Amino acid sequence: MNTPTPTPTPTPIDIDAALVRDVDALRENFRHTPDLYREVCALLFFRYGITPTTNKLYQLVKKGSMSAPSQALTAFWQELRDKSRVRIEHPDLPEALAATAGELVASLWSNAQATADQALQAYRQEADAAVQQMRAEVAAAEADKKGSCTPSIT
After folding, report:
1. Which terminus of the chain faces fewer neighbouring Cβ atoms within 10 Å, N or C?
2. Is 88 in contact with 105 (CB distance < 8 Å)?
3. Is residue 33 within 8 Å of residue 68, measured between CB atoms?
């Protein structure tokens, strides 16, 4: 019985090539240098799971002065921090209580996301196991088919 081969993990060269293609596509849509740097930050961080650095940004974009990627990176992290904060606004609510409530909601959200990620990972493992089982069954059926199609000499 043949065991199915797992899907190959992309190599760093494959990832780099895909990253360069994605940056080239962004160039078409974002002509303004700060906008391009901002989008490449988001691409690296959210799609590829790579923490953007000034050097990496400049290597990919190759546009503007060396201060451009640094400024874009600072703005990217500031925007990410601002968007991840939860603000509870109510006119009669003391500021300290509003800040604490915001932190509580952010913590609840983080816990909910972690739980959802764990459930998704379990689902993916089940799906991968089912796919491997189906591939094994297909391989066995193909092997049986080849065996039954071979003419016997008597």
Report:
1. C
2. yes
3. yes
Half-sphere exposure (Cβ direction) of 104: Cα atoms closer than 13 Å:
7
One DSSP character per residue, 17-73 reads HHHHHHHHHHHHH--SHHHHHHHHHHIIIIIS-----HHHHHHHH--S-THHHHHHH
- For residue 125, which amino acid is it? Q
Q: Supply the pLDDT for residue 61.
A: 93
- As a dihedral over the C-alpha atoms of residue 25, residue 30, residue 35, residue 38, rounded to 10 degrees, the angle is -10
Instruction: Please give the Cα distance from 64 to 73 (Å, whole number).
Output: 14
Residue count (the chain): 154
Indicate the pTM of the whole model: 0.53
What count of Cα atoms within 13 Å lies in the side-chain half-sphere of residue 78? 7
pLDDT digits (tens, 9 = 90+) for 49-60: 899 999 999 999
CA distance 14 to 21: 11
